[in-house]
Amino acid sequence: MPAIWFFEDVNVFKMLCPHKMKKYKDKHEFSHYPKQDFIYFEEDSATKVYLIERGKVKIGYYKEDGTEVIKAILTKGELFGEKAILGEETRNEFAQSLDNATSVCPVPVATMQDLMRDNRPFTLRFYKFLGMRFKKLERRLELLLFKDTTTRVKEFLAEMAEDYGYCCPNTGDTVIKHPYTQKDIASLIGTSRPTLNTIMNELKASSFLDFNRSEIRLKVA
After folding, report:
1. Does one domain contain both 74 and 105?
2. Whole domain around residue 200: which residue ranges?
3. Quick one: DSSP state of residue 207?
4. Which residue, 81, 61, 78, is CA-closest to 69?
5. Is there a contact between 160 and 147 (Cβ–Cβ < 8 Å)?
6. Which residues contact 90 (CB under 8 A, 6 or more apart)?
7. Of 86, 113, 144, at which residue does a domain stop?
8. Cα→Cα distances 211→21, 60, 120, 173, 205, Å
9. Is DNA-binding set as a keyword in this record (predicted)?
């Protein structure tokens, strides 16, 4: 299942998790978090990267006025905390579990560096992944700064269509099976849930889309 920050349809967890590799298997343990538990806070030491085995994780930070800013909501197979590999010493964001049974694979920076030193294809894939992640963050920041809310909704739907969508053979519609709640989507595009709901209903009334809790269907023009 491709997700927001997968690349080449590769599950990052399956590719990078050390428990798949004999050298690290005996030293490897998973960490489990209930809903709303923090995996790390802003200003924590950045000593590990994390791969999601199960569940959903919110990445964000707090502005000076206490407002929460959501940078990403990640799901099974994705990686976070990766800036520790690039030399970050303290976190400038938090990571919080959004599911009742989130399970992650914590990978010490030293272990990741060993893997990168010993395996050139692994290293190239990892840096390609980072490049695509930073590009997507930059695109989302541009949306938040320069686009009106309706445009942000439409462009986020287009992004989800790339990551989760498939063409319905009977109608030609693009069907998006996604893991997000309306609250998740509202947070990611910088609006409120009521505003998002209003826009989604307006788009539905104009036959741009149809939707329910687990699926969004983009109509053929």
Report:
1. yes
2. 147-218
3. T
4. 61
5. no
6. 43, 44, 45, 46
7. 144
8. 42, 27, 44, 12, 11
9. yes
Give me the phi and psi of 114, to 5 degrees please.
Answer: -60, -45
Between the alpha carbon of residue 11 and those of residues 2, 5, 82, 104, 172, the distances in Å are 7, 10, 16, 14, 28
Rounded to an integer, what distance in angstroms lies between the CA atom of residue 42 and that of residue 102?
20
5 in a domain, yes or no? no
133 and 205 assigned to the same domain: no
Mark which of 111, 144, 177 sits at the end of a domain. 144
Mind giving me the DSSP string for 122-155?
HHHHHHHHHHHHHHHHHHHHHHHHHS-HHHHHHH
Return the number of other C-beta atoms located less than 10 Å from residue 24's C-beta. 16
State pTM to two decimals.
0.72
pLDDT tens per residue across all 221 residues of the chain: 233 333 333 355 555 555 555 555 556 678 999 999 999 999 999 999 998 888 999 999 988 888 888 888 888 888 899 889 888 999 999 999 999 989 998 888 888 888 788 777 778 877 877 777 777 777 777 777 778 999 999 989 998 898 889 999 989 999 999 888 888 889 888 889 999 999 999 999 999 999 988 799 999 87
- The structural domain count of the chain equals 2
